[in-house]
UniProtKB/TrEMBL annotation:
Renumbered residue ranges of the record's region Disordered: 1-31, 58-89
Keywords attached to this entry: Phosphoprotein, Repeat, TPR repeat
PANTHER family: TETRATRICOPEPTIDE REPEAT PROTEIN 1
Name by which UniProt lists this protein: Tetratricopeptide repeat protein 1
TPR repeat residues: 115-148, 188-221
Subunit structure: Interacts with the GAP domain of NF1. Interacts (via TPR repeats) with HSP90AA1 and HSPA8.
Classification via InterPro entries: TPR-like_helical_dom_sf, TPR_domain_protein, TPR_rpt
Species name: Drosophila lebanonensis
Any Pfam family the entry gives: TPR_14
The keyword Protein transport belongs to this UniProt entry's keyword annotation: no
Length: 285
């Protein structure tokens, strides 16, 4: 897939908060079932988003990574920082399907249109640096967007993840990215956001897998190309460090066991067979 084709997939067909035009007005509609909205508000009235807050530099608008900067780990002491934002718990897909049983075909279309209007409103709130209200609006949209509108729902999750990034709620943002990708596996922006969040959470293996997936979908993505060069040495260095620490721990354990017999691990030499790669242990008196 060419870069232009990849962009069409993530920008044109289902616009998200960066590329959509400014919302001139959000049309009020009286055709929605008021009882449905009341049930949604009542269900969510006491639900809050809580996540460890670690600083993520945010752009004025959503980029492919939702304002997560250059993707490198920004270390900040977050031991006693908490981000609490408005409601962000949507109806489960089962609850939404059950609710939809009472909708007429006309109400399904009306709710789909209203969800789109709410998305545009949320986008404007995001651009105007009000991510908390944006999260609330995206959640309201998810609660009326028809269950079978997979890509539209994926974009709502992707946009809500970007708003959570602005609030520095990384774990919750990763969760929303996962939901978006589950609904739309080729959603490049959600994959890029999750990849950069994984890096900041010191999960380079998962980040690399997402970058590889992005590259498969759109080889023109520079972040995906660069990450496939940058991350493998980081992963290898991490693995070597873990192996060294593990061997040191095993050696300490071995010395503790052998000490009553007047022995230590220095009495044992481990030698690798260059042909088979297997190890043999020789005892030295």
């Amino acid at each position: 897939m060419s870069q232009a084709q990849g962009k069409n997939h993530s920008d044109d067909e289902f616009q998200d908060a960066l590329s959509e035009p400014p919302l001139a007005s959000v049309t009020k509609t009286s055709t929605l079932n008021e009882q449905i909205i009341e049930e949604i508000v009542e269900k969510q009235s006491n639900l809050k988003l809580n996540d460890d807050a670690v600083k993520i530099e945010a752009d004025d608008e959503l980029g492919a990574a939702g304002g997560s900067g250059d993707g490198e780990n920004n270390e900040t002491d977050s031991s006693d920082k908490k981000t609490e934002s408005p409601i962000d718990v949507e109806l489960s897909i089962e609850e939404l399907r059950e609710l939809q049983k009472d909708w007429t075909s006309e109400e399904v279309e009306q709710n789909k249109e209203k969800a789109n209007q709410l998305k545009l409103e949320g986008n404007e709130l995001f651009k105007n640096d009000d991510p908390e209200r944006a999260i609330k609006i995206y959640t309201e949209a998810l609660n009326i967007c028809p269950a079978d509108s997979s890509k539209e729902r994926a974009v709502l999750y992707g946009n809500r993840a970007a708003a959570k990034i602005k609030l520095e709620a990384r774990k919750s943002a990763i969760s929303d990215c996962c939901k978006a990708i589950e609904l739309w596996p080729e959603y490049v922006r959600a994959l890029l956001r999750r990849a950069k969040l994984y890096e900041q959470e010191e999960r380079p293996d998962e980040a690399l897998e997402d970058y590889k997936r992005v590259y498969e979908i759109d080889p023109g993505q520079p972040d995906a190309r660069e990450a496939q060069i940058r991350l493998p040495p980081i992963i290898n260095a991490r693995n070597e460090k873990l192996k060294t620490e593990m061997m040191s721990s095993l050696k300490d354990l071995g010395n503790m066991i052998l000490k009553p017999f007047g022995l230590s691990t220095t009495n044992f030499q481990m030698k690798q067979d260059p042909n088979s790669g297997s190890y043999s242990i020789n005892f030295n008196q």
